[in-house]
């Protein structure tokens, strides 16, 4: 597993996941509305979430965004290798921090790091078409919607479509 370097933005330090973060992140991952478009349903208890978050076998890296002024994490972002020089990204906001530009700010730092430091050529995101805020975020970051896969995944809600969003290194201008 690759190391998780600390990244900084104007307002946040993006650091590796640490024991105890699961208690704050449980607010997100136990929320049926926030988990509606995930591949699994909400977590019922913090111990199951802890096991899932800290599972070293999943093959990706996790950062949590903490305000420079201190306090609890407000966002989790991930990057996983999906092929040679290809990464998939994901993100989950902590309730109460929506619509403040946090995800955009932190994903900008992550994407820049993946392209400029890690040498990634392509980044993609896999988003349920009904997840309007997430789709708007990727579009606003310059991603191109490349595919609409019908009944791409069976989840706790049944069969769900997905939109695949892609961004190439030479398209990144932020």
From TrEMBL:
The keyword Acyltransferase applies. Keywords: Acyltransferase, Transferase. GO terms for molecular function: acyltransferase activity, transferring groups other than amino-acyl groups. Transmembrane segments: none annotated. Residues 12-169 form the N-acetyltransferase domain. InterPro entries: Acyl_CoA_acyltransferase, GNAT_dom, N-acetyltransferase. Pfam families: Acetyltransf_3. Belongs to the acetyltransferase family. RimJ subfamily. This is GNAT family N-acetyltransferase. It comes from Alteraurantiacibacter aestuarii.
């Amino acid at each position: 597993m690759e190391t998780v370097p600390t990244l900084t933005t104007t307002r946040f330090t993006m650091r590796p996941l640490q024991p105890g973060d699961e208690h704050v992140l449980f607010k997100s991952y136990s929320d049926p509305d926030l988990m509606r478009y995930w591949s699994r349903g909400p977590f019922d208890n913090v111990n199951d979430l802890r096991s899932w978050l800290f599972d070293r076998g999943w093959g990706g890296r996790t950062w949590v965004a903490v305000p420079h002024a201190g306090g609890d994490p407000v966002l989790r972002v991930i990057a996983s290798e999906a092929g040679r020089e290809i990464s998939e990204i994901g993100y989950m906001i902590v309730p109460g921090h929506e619509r403040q530009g946090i995800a955009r700010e932190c994903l900008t730092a992550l994407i820049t790091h993946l392209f400029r430091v890690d040498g990634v050529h392509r980044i993609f995101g896999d988003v349920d078409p009904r997840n309007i805020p997430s789709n708007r975020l990727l579009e606003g970051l310059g991603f191109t919607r490349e595919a609409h896969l019908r009944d791409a995944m069976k989840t706790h809600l049944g069969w769900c479509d997905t939109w695949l969003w892609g961004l190439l290194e030479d398209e990144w201008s932020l």
